């Protein structure tokens, strides 16, 4: 037991849970937490310029590192500012912890500074779990539970609310003991059924998602695919779950129907792992997954939503794959490697024919980043293409806000990724519209001397919406034209090197130069002629 204030209990609990980095902005309702950080330099605090940027940074940090991203925010506007990023993390399955204040509990409902009518109720819609401290001693327990909940099952954001008076109160506090997390057992009967179907299969097909990487089960997936000789598709968030130059991996090229449909039709057993098989992963249920279908997922409610499932296995993915491997022959089968190669060649040939500019841009990005480089996507036309066709070779190297598609994600997520993996090259892929949502976070990148590159595609409009309007309404467009600043001058105002390219053809050289210099740079590329993938 130790005597400490509530703010000190927050920091002590985070240290106890091995949290090394937190993101946030101090405010009058979190002063006790920040004063406690002063005495705990073991925790690195990253000062953002907006709570939304801080939470997006925490998301990028979590995706790149496999750790929980932690955000500190004040009552009211701090929480609402962070809420879009929490919604993004909830949709994509990214573990975040928001530690935030609330008004003095003695005067709740009396029109306090920053007061929200129902702060926890608002957060309930975009988080997995939330707790509220009623005394200082609750704080370490709630933070421990929150970090556990953020990572169990399908990962996601959680929050802990601490009233202002509790943050300033001093009490005797006990930090909880660290115990090994109990792993739920996988049902033996379902495992046996799945193993029997897979052992008898001649042409199995695996559809893998982000859940495999979130469970650190990539090695098990690779071994399973090679033993079965199974074609492997991934959903867009799961790109990199298996190296996309592996001869059995098609990546997210499933979105090219002509190339992939023959492989789907000929498959005799389907195995979905760590993908929720919802509307976004299956083209609204049009993806022709083979039957019988086996589905492995941490949550029972994800199984059988759009596709009839012969065998549903609910449990931890890493444990389930390990148990399946124990039941399957140890020999590896070659599988339809030539067919996979032809399908990939066909998909990429169509990309080159339909959008040669995009093919070149993606090739230049891949070449400059190398196998280990990290790419943070924002909502811009080249990013939509990258989610389908950019080859990804390692897990946690493509940060794709696929389900919520929140504008402004790319830059702060890339900052978080660079803080998590300073040894790797990091690039943010942004459009002019989305960049202006969070462009102030250039100040954060400059403050911490981060070496990352922002590639900014500028077409002076909300390009994706503009193209949708053109297609749907016979060329009529409204409210999509933008009055943009001089982006190069804007970057240079922060002491950041700015480069303006007249053509996407010069991107490869500019990217290799900035990454080799290990500097913070912004490359603006004219994007007026780039096509949409629809």
Topology (elements, then pairings):
Blueprint: E1 2-5, H1 6-16, E2 21-24, H2 31-38, E3 44-47, H3 51-65, E4 69-73, H4 77-92, E5 96-102, H5 119-124, E6 129-132, H6 138-151, E7 157-163, H7 164-168, E8 170-173, H8 188-200, E9 204-208, H9 210-214, H10 218-228, E10 231-234, E11 249-251, H11 257-266, E12 269-273, E13 293-297, E14 311-314, H12 317-327, H13 337-354, H14 356-369, E15 374-377, H15 381-389, E16 398-399, H16 410-420, E17 426-431, H17 432-438, H18 442-447, E18 453-458, H19 463-472, H20 487-492, E19 497-501, H21 507-517, E20 521-526
Parallel strand pairs: 2-3, 2-4, 4-5, 5-7, 6-7, 9-10, 9-12, 10-11, 12-13, 13-14, 15-16, 15-17, 17-18, 18-20, 19-20
Antiparallel strand pairs: 1-8
Helix content: 40-55%
- Briefly, what CATH class of the largest domain? Alpha Beta
**Major sheet size, sense and barrel closure:** 6 strands, parallel
CATH topology tier name of the largest domain = Rossmann fold
Counting DSSP E segments of at least 2 residues, the number of strands comes to 20
Using the CA coordinates, give the radius of gyration: 24 Å
Number of structural units classed as domains: 3
**CATH architectural designation of the largest domain:** 3-Layer(aba) Sandwich
Distance between the termini: 61 Å
Provide the structure class. Answer: alpha/beta
Total number of helices: 21
Q: CATH H level of the largest domain: which superfamily?
A: Thiamin diphosphate (ThDP)-binding fold, Pyr/PP domains
Question: What is the average per-residue confidence, as pLDDT, rounded to a whole number?
Answer: 94
Q: How much beta, percentage-wise?
A: 15-25%
Strand order of the largest sheet: 3-2-4-5-7-6
* Cα shape: globular
Query: Which residue ranges are poorly predicted, with pLDDT under 50 across at least 5 consecutive positions?
Result: none
